Amino acid sequence: MISSPSSVAVHRGADATLSIVVPLYNEAENVGELLRRLREVVTGLSVPPAGWELICVDDGSRDGTLAILLAAAALDPHLRVISLSRNFGHQIAATAGLDAAHGDAVVLMDGDLQDPPELIDAFLAKFREGYDVVYATRRRRAGESRFKLLTAALFYRTIRRLTNVSIPVDTGDFRLMSKRVVSALRNSRERHRFIRGLVSWVGYKQTGIEYDRAERHSGRSKYPLSKMLRFAIDGITAFSEIPLRIATWFGFLVSAVAFVVAVVEIGIRIFTGYNLPGYTSTIFAILFLGGVQLITIGILGEYVGRVYDEIKGRPLYLVAESVGSGLDADSSPS
Ligand code: UDP
Ligand code: MG
């Protein structure tokens, strides 16, 4: 049975344990450096954790990522490796890692070193002050295309206007979460996951730290435009019903326009006797309304498709192999 978040005790003092969760997909060139930097950061923390674990989730990589992780795990008891049965995508891989985390404080970060591990000390300082979520807001982003910067900025501002959950702008998934927040995420099994939104939805005391996002250490982004778009739609549909109302607004708008046009046309006919030729306006009306209807059906489809996906009730992911026990298993919440 999954414990309810309110019953989860979070240690914040010297007895606090730390989990670091990293989803990885084809990051063979980055793993070595990542492990090295993380170990350096954890051993140099201003308040050493009572215990710590690093959970690397291999999201069905096709390069040597898994082999490197397994070799490293054989030498390091802090390292746990969870290998998924195939590529499930970043948000699901992160979820698999969070599901396995035992720490009082759980840090989620990317494996390409765009999220500097050195920030973890500052995260933990806020955690000790009593915050349940400490997220990292990007002040600057190095090595990203103008297009990505623009679309990302636009996206965060759009979703902010569309939802009543307060999702911080320019903030990715790089963050620290307390055990009870992670436990709340474990109880939220929706499959089109938008983790940063879910975390905002959970509530408790949340705060942000600004940082400059680094360039990828090596390799290319695993988020091409199509995946980014999917992700954006996942975020919006998961946290807003406003797009569904667009049809209603369009309906009122088109009816109002139709009414005005009718009054004007009839007026012209009565007072001047002139019969307006209607070819252009007819074609325009047909195409415009056809477009509006198709768009609104498409929006409806996005929601219906997601309902269908949820109702199938498949597991979010399958684990092929799990190595290492990390923190003491009896501190496990489930
Ligand atoms: N990732 C993953 N599964 C995927 C795609 C990405 O686990 O299907 C991981 C990837 O290895 C990285 C993190 O998610 O650690 C963020 O991905 P990426 O750096 O490609 O995204 P970007 O920073 O470009 O938004
Ligand atoms: Mg990246």
Automatic annotation (TrEMBL):
PANTHER family documented for this protein: PROPHAGE BACTOPRENOL GLUCOSYL TRANSFERASE HOMOLOG, UNDECAPRENYL-PHOSPHATE 4-DEOXY-4-FORMAMIDO-L-ARABINOSE TRANSFERASE-RELATED
An example Gene Ontology CC term for this record: plasma membrane
GO MF: glycosyltransferase activity
Range of residues in the leader sequence: none
Database matches in Pfam families: Glycos_transf_2
Residues annotated as transmembrane: 249-271, 283-304
Keywords: Cell membrane, Glycosyltransferase, Membrane, Transferase, Transmembrane, Transmembrane helix
Superkingdom, natural source: Bacteria
Bilayer topology term: Multi-pass membrane protein
UniProt protein name: Glycosyl transferase
Domain Glycosyltransferase 2-like: 19-183
Subcellular localization(s) per the UniProt record: Cell membrane
Family: Belongs to the glycosyltransferase 2 family. GtrB subfamily.
Organism per entry: Vulcanimicrobium alpinum
Signal in keyword set: no
Claim: RNA-binding is one of the keywords in the record: no
UniProt-listed InterPro entries: Glyco_trans_2-like, Glycosyltransferase_2, Nucleotide-diphossugar_trans
